[in-house]
Amino acid sequence: MYEPRYFKDDEFRKLTPSCSIAQMDKNLMEGLDELREAVGMPFIITSAYRSLDWELAKGRPGTSAHTKGMAVDVSCPNSYFTRRVLEEALKRPQYFKGIGVGKNFIHLDVMYRSFAPLVWGY
Prior knowledge:
Helices cover 30% and strands 17% of the residues. It is α+β, with helices and mostly antiparallel strands. A hairpin with a 3-residue loop joins strand 3 and strand 4 (105-109). The longest helix has 14 residues, at 26-39. The model has no long low-confidence stretch (mean pLDDT 95).
């Protein structure tokens, strides 16, 4: 298991649904550590691994990178933070293949796409 520099297992256990770093993709966690270092500000993860059953119970199709432990959502408290995370994530296509920008969060995933990174808004 990859031991992240900036993220602790108890942060993941407090999420809804709860999960652990062991359920997360190693490449994602390495990318998050590198991204966190580059941004220079703490990250608050608001969503990580979500089981297929959890996704289906929420009325979702269950095809999200979250169901494979290959995605997180990062809280973005202001536009400056959003911009910094987006800028630095785009510099790391070897990690981040999917980047979704919401009003107060950024979705980051490492799910393979032939055209990466794919960026979308919510």
